Amino acid sequence: MVYEREGNSWSAYVPDLPGCVAAGDSRKEVSTLIREAIEFHIEGMRKEGLPVPDPRADAEHISVAA
């Protein structure tokens, strides 16, 4: 999942599950909400007979001189 901070709020999304997002007032809150969203999203896919995709996204933090 990817976390983003904008002002005083946080959001998260899952690149491998398009449409799976969460937003809240803190990173801790968003962490809880996105985990619930992932479970709900996958459960819905299974109920609809859709394949659950294998993870394929990867991320890395790097530092650059500004």
What do these coordinates show?
With about 70 residues, the chain is α+β, with helices and mostly antiparallel strands. It has a single domain (about 1-65), classed as Double Stranded RNA Binding Domain. The protein is built from 1 helix and 3 strands. It has one helix at about 25-45, and strands at about 1-5, 10-15, 20-25. The protein has a 3-stranded antiparallel beta sheet with strand order 1-2-3, with helices on one face. It is flat and about 50 Å long.
- Main sheet characteristics: 3 strands, antiparallel
Main CATH class? Alpha Beta
| Rg, nearest Å | 14 Å
Overall 3D shape: flat
How many helix segments?
A: 1
Rounded mean pLDDT score: 94
The CATH architecture designation is 2-Layer Sandwich
- Beta-strand content bin: 15-25%
Q: List the uncertain runs.
A: none
Strand runs, count: 3
Q: SSE order, as H and E?
A: EEEH
Order of strands, widest sheet: 1-2-3
What proportion of the residues is helical, as a percent range?
A: 25-40%
Q: State the separation between the terminal residues, measured CA to CA.
A: 27 Å
**What class do helices, strands and sheet pairing give?**
alpha+beta
Kindly report the CATH topology: Double Stranded RNA Binding Domain
| Total count of domains | 1
